[in-house]
Design brief:
The chain contains two helices and five strands. The protein is of the alpha+beta class. Strands 1, 2, 3, 4 and 5 form a five-stranded antiparallel beta sheet that branches.
């Protein structure tokens, strides 16, 4: 789980108006440079030309593999002071970049639910505080 934290102060004459937690979700497609096509044409399949064309398209950059990640931008404000951080979902990796838009939407929804569960765990799980000397 990646977390990036920034502290900030809101200069507002009525800081009590800005209490609480807000979360904004961002859909990300991140290049997956470790994935490689792992299918090899089976001589008995009869699809050798299609497999070769697909592999050639990959080599020529017509498509690549990506990871689908949901980034949650979290703002926690109390008394006009707050902290802002983001949490990335674990992601789904090895997705073909030219996949159907509905497939990306489905994966993004799954990742959003995953990061929501991570945020909820921050609220409900005991937190072990470690002091670094």
């Amino acid at each position: 789980m990646a977390i990036h934290v920034e502290q900030f102060t809101r200069f507002d004459p009525k800081p009590e108006a800005h209490q609480g937690v807000t979360v904004r979700f961002e859909a990300l497609q991140v290049p997956d440079e470790t994935a490689m096509p792992d299918y090899m044409p089976d001589p008995d399949e009869g699809f050798q030309a299609q497999h070769k064309a697909r592999l050639d398209d990959f080599v020529n950059g017509a498509w690549c593999y990506v990871g689908v990640v949901c980034r949650a931008h979290v703002n926690v404000i109390k008394g006009g002071h707050g902290v802002s951080f983001h949490i990335d979902s674990p992601g789904v990796w090895g997705v073909e970049s030219d996949s159907d838009a509905s497939y990306f939407a489905e994966l993004q929804q799954e990742q959003q639910e995953e990061v929501k569960a991570m945020i909820e765990a921050l609220r409900s799980e005991p937190i072990l505080y470690v002091t670094v000397a």
